[in-house]
Amino acid sequence: MRMTSKIRFISLLTSCLLLLYPLAVQAEKQDKPNSRQVPGNHAQAAALIDVTSGRVLYEHHGDDKLPIASLTKIMTAIVAIEHGRLSDKVKVGRAAYGKEGSSIYLHLGEEMTLENMLFGLMLRSGNDAATAIAEHVGGSEEGFVRLMNEKASLLGLNHSQFQNPHGLDAKNHYSSAIDLAKLTSYAMHNPDFKEIVKTQIKQAPNPNDPWDYKWINKNKMLRFYEGADGVKTGYTKIARRCLVSSATRNGQQLVVVTINDGDDWNDHRKLLDYGFDHFPLVEIIKRGQTLHSGIVAGTGFKYALTTEESREIGKKLVLQEENELSFGRRGELHILLDQQPIGKIPVYNRGSIPPIPKQSQQVYGSGSMRPDWFTSFQQALRSLLFLGD
User: Where in the sequence is the signal peptide annotated (predicted)?
Assistant: First the structure.
């Protein structure tokens, strides 16, 4: 009888422990310091990207094709910088002078350097500046729009199409949160673009009045978020409030995009905090690091990773036979996250690493991004880095 009672007691105790075990495991997971919860936001579509690695850290309806208002001007600016000369004088024509919407109040026939006009475009969102720039750089607004769409294709922005350089609502003029994040990440590698979008106040000569133009950046993130360094606001009645912002902390730059977000300033702050807190930029490989006997890394490799993910990084060295045309290059090192490829770097014989090109920037693929985007991004960045004046 006593034995039976003991068996019943042990069985009951075991059952209770088994019932409690999942709760204990769940509590343990919740208590981990690296556990993360994506902050809520009010956007119709949103994306968060690490600029160095190109990794999309968060997206909500990221591929939805939506009107984007003046976020269009990010593409306008980078195309103008790449195809124009900043010292060129841009003349204001009738189409630019009469353009509706936000304006920097240019006069008909006025001339301004392309550089100053780009400040007016990005700080004050001047539609007159956008039109004047397009006509000057592209020969016509239509010609410039072709350049915009060619750049979108080159960058692999498969959910974007442009009909104008200013972003006023138009049929078949759209982009997506992820596409805009990719575009901005690309543009942020250009020092001229980067300098313009981080500027809070710009003065420029005004030939029509005794005082200079003075443009105060509409992007409030520059004033209330630590490390903020860009990039563009936007609004139309159809697109509603749109915002792309960037910030740099501890050598890591993040970009956030929201489309149709009534509380965008706060949502961007939360998403940037989330990215910096949970996805620090980790240096996985250093340039010149020894990988194998006599084999060294040709470039470094950095990637945005959680603490848990950093333990799942793998490396695969793929060597090739040396020949006269290889110039010391011996193959590639493939970097894996949880056995999935996230990028690759060239490897060389020790002493054969080529010099780093001026303005060289790291560009790598991401496991969360499509391979065609990575390839297109590399090609476009090469054209940017080696483009003559």
Answer: 1-27
